[in-house]
Design goal:
Layout (H helix, E strand, L loop, with lengths): L2 H5 L3 H5 L1 E2 L10 H17 L4 H21 L3 E6 L2 H9 L9 E5 L4 H14 L2 E5 L7 H8 L4 E7 L11 H8 L6 E6 L10 H4 L3 E5 L11 E6 L47 H14 L1 H19 L5 E3 L12 E6 L5 H8 L2 E2 L1 E3 L4 E5 L6 H14 L2
Parallel strand pairs: 1-11, 3-4, 3-5, 5-6, 6-7
Antiparallel strand pairs: 2-8, 7-8, 9-10, 10-13, 12-13
Helix pairs in contact: 3-10, 5-6, 7-8, 10-11, 11-13
């Protein structure tokens, strides 16, 4: 399901021109209703009712295994958001003072704040690659990598511009150093572009449910390459048997490295994961490849239309191996970041991008060509 059919299930898309899926995707009514019904049932039975609680948690675990079919050769853990997933990796790796991390200048605060916590705690050094540069990321990475590099952490799709970055070309360079690991933030990737974490060369891949996948907030995921799961100190034993605290006097408990459940410990609203399973259905019905092409077609329609407007320009990638996606940044020569506010007044929901003096337009699975036309019409009006 996509386009006009899906749009009818999304109240936010019927009331306005909603082009901000990259922040929060509006959840279709059937998914919201199922999540709410599951949580109400949980409350009626009693959230501490052990059999029901365990059943709800097991259903979430089954959904994680369903995702693993789409993301093979690794384990999937369901967490509450991308920030938690990133911290699970960063605080799970062994660090030594003087270790280095390489990242980019197009990273979300969730990545940057996590790195800042490592600086404060372990005294690591951070090096930053420039994404919007004539100098390729491959060349920059070659210059910055050293035997002290513990981690390369970067986005698959830039949250500032929507450019798909060539992570698969960076992985072979990174893996020349046996101690270096590769963390890819796919928050703007899943549901926007086709992804296969293993093929990117990532050791750890973070992805999100509440953006392009349109799931209710509170769900994200962490894919870990099978051979790397045991490296994370944040991996906990599966709590399906009794643990004796005195066992810690003799060392740590053994870990189950066959699945990602050891990264899921803690209470959460397990029944609400049904909302994500329903939106996942929408992508699987036609196939992730079809849905990605549909959204990219809308983006290409926007790029072509903006090309005819003198007062605006699409921020295009500086490198031939960067790819456009359904997330497009439009720069306003006259209004800058105030463009977002002006569009809100016209009932068009976008997000401002101060770094590029413009707006970010996210064309989700429920958007239609009329949404692009509505935005372009507003831009024409504002340029007069």
């Amino acid at each position: 399901m996509f386009g006009y059919d899906l749009r009818l299930l999304i109240p936010a898309a019927l009331r306005q021109t909603y082009l901000n899926t990259a922040t929060l995707g509006p959840t279709p009514t059937p998914a919201s209703a199922a999540a709410c019904a599951a949580e109400l049932e949980w409350e009626e039975i009693g959230p501490g009712h052990v059999p029901y609680y365990l059943e709800a948690r097991e259903k979430a675990r089954q959904f994680a295994k369903r995702i693993e079919h789409y993301m093979p050769r690794g384990t999937v853990s369901l967490v509450e958001n991308n920030s938690e997933a990133i911290l699970r990796v960063m605080w799970g790796l062994p660090w030594e003072r003087g270790d280095e991390v390489i990242t980019t200048d197009h990273e979300h605060p969730a990545m940057l704040f996590s790195l800042a916590s490592l600086i404060r705690r372990f005294g690591i050094k951070v090096k930053v690659m420039t994404v919007d540069s004539a100098d390729s990321l491959q060349d920059q990475l070659q210059r910055l990598l050293t035997p002290k590099t513990r981690l390369v952490a970067m986005s698959h799709v830039s949250y500032l511009t929507g450019w798909q970055l060539p992570v698969e070309k960076l992985a072979p360079i990174i893996h020349q150093y046996p101690r270096t690991r590769f963390l890819v933030d796919g928050a703007q990737a899943l549901g926007n572009i086709l992804i296969n974490p293993f093929n990117t060369g990532a050791d750890f891949y973070v992805f999100c449910g509440h953006k392009w996948m349109m799931a209710p907030p509170g769900w994200a995921g962490l894919w870990v390459r099978t051979t790397r799961l045991g490296e994370l100190a944040t991996m906990w034993p599966i709590d399906d048997h009794v643990f004796n605290p005195k066992d810690l006097e003799h060392g740590v408990w053994p870990l189950d490295l066959d699945n990602g459940q050891g990264l899921e410990f803690g209470s959460r609203a397990w029944p609400r994961v049904v909302g994500w399973s329903i939106t996942w259905d929408y992508f699987e019905e036609e196939g992730f490849a079809h849905q990605s092409r549909y959204q990219l077609g809308l983006a290409q329609q926007l790029v072509q239309a903006v090309g005819h407007l003198d007062a605006f320009e699409v921020v295009m990638p500086p490198q031939s191996d960067y790819r456009l996606t359904a997330l497009v940044t439009v720069r306003s020569k006259k209004l800058g970041t105030h463009l977002a506010e002006k569009l809100w007044e016209h009932n068009v929901v976008v997000k401002s991008v101060p770094d590029y003096q413009g707006i970010r337009v996210a064309l989700g699975l429920f958007n239609i060509p009329d949404d692009v036309n509505a935005l372009v019409s507003c831009l024409q009006t504002l340029s007069e």
